[in-house]
Amino acid sequence: MEMNKYQLLLEKQRNYFRTGATLPVAFRKKALQTLLMAIKKRENEILEAVKIDLRKSSFEAYTNEIGIIYLEIKHLMKNIAKWAKPKKTKIEMFLMPGSGTIYNEPYGTSLIIAPWNYPFQLVIAPLIAAIAAGNTAIVKPSEVSQATAKIVTTILEESFSDNFVAVVNGGIDETTALLSLPVDKIFFTGSVPVGKIVMAAAAKNLTPVTLELGGKSPVIVDKSADLTLAARKIVWGKFNNAGQTCVAPDYILVDKSIESDFLKKLQEVIREFYGENPDESKDFGRIINERHVARLEKLINSNKVVFGGKVNVNKKYIAPTIMVNVTLDDVVMQDEIFGPILPILAFEKIEDAISIIRSFSKPLALYLFTKDKNVEKLIMERVSFGGGGVNTTILHVASSHLPFGGVGQSGTGSYHGKAGFDDFSHKKSVLKQPVFFDPGITYPGKQISLKLIKMIMG
Ligand code: NAD
User: Fold this and answer.
1) Is 411 contained in some domain?
2) Same domain, 96 and 177
3) Can you give the pTM of this predicted structure?
4) Is 157 a catalytic residue?
5) Which residue range(s) make up the domain with 209?
6) Which residues in 230-267 are b (16+ Cβ under 10 Å) and which e?
7) pLDDT digit string, tens, across residues 355-411
């Protein structure tokens, strides 16, 4: 049977990988440096593209899409040599004489599929982890954020030959074709339903898969919280990129006793950040397309809106919107919102907040605002979530020292910094024993007594 163009591309990358070209640390560092320079050269074009796709301000686009990548590339370059080195381990007495070594082996060929909401960062961040770990990569940007997909293609094509890093553009058909390839590793960022499709496709070839998904990420505002600080950090985390952030606060659980004070603060802060008319603010983004505006509009129940609520389909604009007295039956609570609508639910006891969170699948992020150490301990110990913050929102994703990923329905596997290197590496464990001495205590005929082996192993 004749190979299709994707099979040929994979074949090319597999052959290249098998030459060993990607293995030397010097090669990986050079590749990262090449990419860094290519991004620097085209910084303005990237900012422009992201503005076309999502109307992100230059500040927001620079920090979220580019700056964060520079920091991560530098962190990887500084540490690859250390991480890639084989690691000696201890071994048990009954295995002696000998030594244990863990080799960090690149999987080989990888496939990276990205979403549209951070259309530059979420293509490049997994790619640099794949390169740092010594893999080749086929990269599939989102077809929804077309302007950014175009500049990503330009940058990667001018930086690398396609036997090492290749870009494939397209939508469902192209991604489906790519997913049928027997690559050595799949890294997917996107929605839960598509995550299931990806995992099913990976299962056919038993390909290891990392899924960076989404879900409903809660914020808890405890009665001891600093309300001004909570309001500022929540408003910033929620309305950044018009709410289209996988780790954005999805809904707020607030202690009833402070609800009305907190609501006032929230509204003050939105006015302070985005003015009386956020439509005119350069700092407030747009919804990716009209389909998503229509989807979001249906989540707004005007009877429950206390702030915002304005929608303009042609401008792809949805105002920062707060809804109160929300219950779990409201449509806004059925799925991840992924837009600038903030529902507020009040609770009487912290245990009630925990039960609400547990009524959903395990969230990608959770944020807690409190000064009470006991509340903090309770939430950290008893609630499962991908990652998050105490008295802060979304910034945990910005540290190369914190593995980032979901749990359960919000994803599997993690990356950023060493976690990304590990995610794209197989740990090859090898026991080496000397040739000059073979005690053979396990061989039939030479076995030591059961009593002795019980003393050694029991
Ligand atoms: P999506 O799942 O629709 O698309 C992601 C990618 O999958 C795109 O490249 C797309 O072309 C491809 N795709 C779409 N439908 C497909 C299908 N039927 N078969 C094969 N491939 C298909 O996600 P999106 O709308 O681009 O992004 C939004 C979602 O991503 C949200 O749920 C958000 O929470 C999540 N997300 C997660 C993270 C994270 O790091 N965990 C980051 C950003 C976004």
Assistant:
1) no
2) yes
3) 0.96
4) no
5) 5-213
6) bbbbbbbbbbbbbbbbbbbbbbbbbbeebbeebbebbb
7) 999 999 999 999 999 999 999 999 999 999 999 999 999 999 999 999 999 999 999
